[in-house]
Write a structure and sequence with these properties.
four-stranded antiparallel beta sheet, single chain, three-stranded antiparallel beta sheet, about 50% helix, 14 helices, about 400 residues, 7 strands
Length: about 400
């Protein structure tokens, strides 16, 4: 049963009314569906046009009710709040939440009704996102963010808050994949040689013990990354509890982009580097009257005193400068992550050792074979000349 009309109300049909109010020159349409009272401005002061607009609105609402589509207004902020509740605890939660807060809410956040989102609005958002900063984001970055928007809108359709899917385009990134520079064998050899020279130099001029220990730790960190495939954040998060000395394995927990657990089979040079860090730590404890027992929860990337080193960025840059590597621009510069790329390339192209399969290398590095092909492997056909010629080793 509809709302009873008063003296200032015009009954259009049963359950639908037009009304004039003092605060607006336009006719207001009102109705009641499923015990919910709804009202909408017709946007016109003409009674005949207002009647037509009210009827269109009323029948659209009834159609949505029959299709099971909710007709209440859902704001964008309410949509994001409900969507994030469904992925709490998932590995992707932090990335989704950060993307929503940093990029989507500033653009869509003022929408009180998500039904106003159209394909054109999404297109306009992408234009603004590209030009948000002086340096445009790479297509692969936009595609990761667009996945969040796409799943957010699909969730709204599933909840019947939107009548149909909205197109969020996939951006072609085949021509824009940018690989971080790796170290060639010659460059890596020079890097290690210069790192050792800096340690001897500090010892020769009686530099502070802190500087010597810093340089020693940096050298071991370089060797560990180039012989394990670790990410930089994984390097700094590994603890003595993660090290399996009997097998020479590293067991990581809740690490990497996927926040998952995996085991790494370390090369002997990486095991030796970790052993050197362990020895320096135990010597310090003995010298200070402490039991030479490693704390399982202590970070491996620490000074002999046990103080963890949060970043090697500045020290590594100084080392690169002393190596004299030349770069055309900042994008060409090596970084600590270049050592992970070096591990992948050496694994794929080494001549005198067994090469791991792409699947085995992907498990070791905590990624997919496709990502290794696109980003990490810097090999080319020349690296497989002997195999392609059919030569026996």
């Amino acid at each position: 049963m509809g709302r009873k009309a008063d003296a200032k109300t015009i009954a259009v049909i049963e359950g639908l009314y037009l009304k004039r109010i003092s605060t607006s020159p336009y006719w207001q349409a009102s109705c009641q569906l499923r015990n919910t009272y709804l009202r909408k401005s017709t946007g016109t002061a003409d009674e005949r046009q207002a009647t037509i607009a009210a009827l269109e609105w009323f029948f659209l609402l009834r159609q949505r009710v029959e299709l099971g589509i909710r007709f209440q207004r859902i704001s964008f902020n309410l949509l994001t709040e409900n969507f994030l509740k469904t992925i709490i605890g998932d590995n992707k939660f932090r990335f989704y939440r950060d993307t929503i807060d940093r990029h989507l809410v500033p653009y869509f956040g003022e929408l009180r009704d998500i039904r106003k989102i159209t394909d054109g609005m999404v297109s306009d958002y992408l234009v603004e996102r590209r030009n948000k900063n002086p340096r445009q984001p790479l297509p692969q970055t936009l595609n990761r963010e667009n996945t969040v928007l796409r799943q957010l809108l699909n969730f709204a359709v599933m909840q019947k808050w939107l009548p149909e899917k909205i197109i969020v385009p996939y951006i072609n990134q085949s021509q824009t994949v940018r690989r971080r520079r790796h170290f060639t064998p010659e460059e890596y050899g020079k890097l290690i040689k210069q790192a050792k020279h800096r340690i001897k130099e500090a010892q020769a001029i009686a530099t502070s013990r802190h500087t010597i220990n810093n340089r020693r730790l940096l050298l071991d960190a370089i060797i560990i990354m180039a012989n394990s495939g670790l990410r930089v954040d994984e390097l700094h998060r590994m603890t003595w509890r993660n090290m399996d000395w009997t097998k020479g394995d590293l067991k990581l927990e809740y690490v990497g982009k996927r926040k998952s657990a995996r085991k790494l089979v370390l090369r002997y040079s990486a095991i030796a580097a970790i052993a050197r860090i362990s020895k320096r730590r135990q010597q310090w404890m003995t010298q200070h009257g402490e039991p030479a027992i490693l704390n399982p929860n202590e970070r491996i990337m620490s000074m002999p005193s046990g103080i963890a080193v949060a970043s090697f960025k500045k020290m590594f840059r100084l080392l690169l400068d002393e190596c004299g590597f030349e770069y055309q621009n900042n994008n060409e510069r090596h970084s600590m992550t270049s050592l992970r790329h070096t591990y992948a390339t050496r694994s794929l192209t080494q001549k005198h050792r067994l090469r791991p399969t792409m699947e085995a290398l992907a498990k070791q590095m905590g990624t997919s074979p496709r990502m290794i092909e696109m980003y990490y492997g810097h090999d080319d056909v020349e690296d497989y000349r002997d195999e392609l010629r059919g030569k026996l080793r």
